[in-house]
Amino acid sequence: MNIDKLKAIVIDDEPFAREELVELLEQTGCIEVLDQAGNAIHGLQKINALKPDVVFLDIEMPQVTGIELLSMLDPDTMPAVVFVTAYDQYALQAFEDNAFDYLLKPVEPTRLDKTVCRLVKAFKKQEVNQDFSAITRELEHVPCIGHNRIMLVPIADIEVAFSDLSGVSIQTSERTATSQLTLKVIEEKTHLIRCHRQYLVNPKAIREIKLLEQGLAEIVTQSGHNAPVSRRYLKVLKEKLGFS
């Protein structure tokens, strides 16, 4: 694997700290900063769109923290993560949540150089195999974007989540919004269960299951929304709901 420069995104809600870190990273000569974001939701969008090698991520941010963002990333495609924060009490939790490294603000150039050297060596040796399967933190809400606003939808309010050409949609009793999370992450980090390759359903929102021909079925939620049930998932769904 030939590494020229590692591609990076910087996510921090403090503009001055963000710009300072970008400048320090570019001075190393080993990092190309693709973009930056002032909050976790926009950061998640940029991670999914740009697919960086590494993300330098602040922990204390409004609405969604850096640690919560880490839990929202798809384990199969997530980049290396370096936490950058002024609060050293987060250090232990950061490493428990499988961050590649941890930097304290204000970032010292010599300490940053050590982190960058470790990153370059790890990518050259293809050893950035972080065990993100250990990240078991359950999501309390799903970040969504719709009607020129960012919404944090509580898991309990979600009836159905589904994917289509426009991305992943989150359906509540009142609205449908778009999320940057993948169905896989939502399935693994919430109590929603799979009923179809492209659909997840909240078992507490199910009003009835209509059994159709050829082993198919259809879920009707408490609010009247519909979700298909494929043959592959019908038996598993019935078992999870306590039906024989």
What do these coordinates show?
The chain has 244 residues and is an alpha/beta fold. The chain folds into two domains: 6-131, Rossmann fold, CATH 3.40.50.2300; 142-240, OB fold (Dihydrolipoamide Acetyltransferase, E2P), CATH 2.40.50.1020. Helices cover 29% and strands 32% of the residues. It has helices at 15-28, 40-50, 66-72, 91-96, 109-124, 183-189, 231-240, and strands at 6-11, 31-37, 54-58, 80-85, 101-104, 141-146, 149-154, 158-164, 167-172, 176-179, 193-196, 199-201, 206-211, 217-221, 226-229. The strands form three sheets. Strands 7-6-10-9-8-12-11 form a seven-stranded antiparallel sheet. A five-stranded parallel sheet has the order 2-1-3-4-5, sandwiched between helices. It has a three-stranded antiparallel sheet with strand order 13-14-15. The longest helix is centred in the middle third of the chain and has 16 residues, at 109-124. The chain is elongated and about 65 Å long.
Summarize the structure.
With 244 residues, the chain is an alpha/beta fold.
Beta-strand content estimate: 25-35%
Write out the CATH superfamily name of the largest domain: Response regulator
**Count, helices:** 7
CATH architecture of the largest domain: 3-Layer(aba) Sandwich
Q: Can you give the helix content as a percent range?
A: 25-40%
Low-confidence stretches: none
Order of helices and strands: EHEHEHEHEHEEEEEHEEEEEH
CATH class categorisation of the largest domain: Alpha Beta
Tell me the radius of gyration.
20 Å
List keywords for this structure.
32% strand; alpha/beta; 5-stranded parallel sheet; elongated; 2 domains; Rossmann fold; 7-stranded antiparallel sheet; 244 residues; OB fold (Dihydrolipoamide Acetyltransferase, E2P); 29% helix
